[in-house]
Amino acid sequence: MQPPRRRKGLQLPLSPRLSVALTTDGPAPDLLRIGSISPRTTAEGPGLRFAVWAQGCSIRCTGCFNPHFWATAGGQDVVVEDIARQAIDAGVDGVTLLGGEPFEQAPAFAALGKKVREAGLSMMVFSGFEREFLESGDAPDGAAALLAQTDLLVDGPYLADKRDLGRPWVGSTNQRFHFLTDRYRHLEENLKGMPDRIEVRISPMGAVAINGWAPVDRLDTLLDDLTPRVGRGQVQ
Question: Angle formed by the axes of helices 80-89 and 106-118, to 10°?
Fold first, then answer.
């Protein structure tokens, strides 16, 4: 799942430089099923970040902006080593995982986190699962390993009736920031004073890519005459 604010379903496509391996039974431990990436963004966490949207989510929050990331059949399977190298070479401060639901591919994302953190990058993860569940015996396989590679965790499902306009990066007031290391602990007291951001990119072919947070009505105004109106995901 992902709090919808976290990306309007119009992300950049996967880089053609990433190695792709097609599978029939889901990603192997050294593969990640990815819906999209943004190699350099200031809208997905502290500093300049390499953002990765996981493909596949069983939570499926009503109101999600990225329902096309729900199905595990979508996206592409990418080798962990290749995406780690691209993130390290991007010249960013860290990697942000969104979705989809990163913890439903926790072992491979933990491997990615280990590689990029060993190179000095930070790791931020958004999850629709709450931390208590991720630390319980019912958590998805590999959850503890991914938490161990996470500097900043944002947890909780998106709740459309609790929209949050006071803090950066999150979509609803129930979602929490967990500073699992000291890397970003200095931000804890100042979250309400930090601005949110939205990024819009238009390719030479006219494709529009958006990431960052803005209410749907503001997005529709921004994209008037450029794209169809922005929709929300619904649980059927």
Answer: 40
Q: Which residue has the tokens 């390993």?
A: 145
Listed in sequence order, the residues at least 6 apart from 116 whose beta carbon sits closer than 8 Å to its beta carbon are: 84, 87, 88, 94, 95, 123
**Residue of 210, 195, 234 whose CA lies nearest to 8:** 210
pLDDT digits (tens, 9 = 90+) for 71-91: 998 899 999 999 999 999 999
**Per-residue pLDDT tens over the stretch 43-76:** 999 999 999 999 999 999 988 878 889 999 889 9
Cβ neighbours around 190 below 10 Å, total: 8
Whole-number Cα distances in Å, 169 to 193, 205, 227: 12, 29, 24
Alpha-carbon distance of 144 to 121, in angstroms, equals 19
Q: In the chain, how many H helices and how many E strands?
A: 5, 9
Among the residue ranges 27-41, 139-153, 218-232, the one predicted with the least confidence is: 218-232
Residue 100: cis peptide before it, omega within 30 degrees of 0: yes
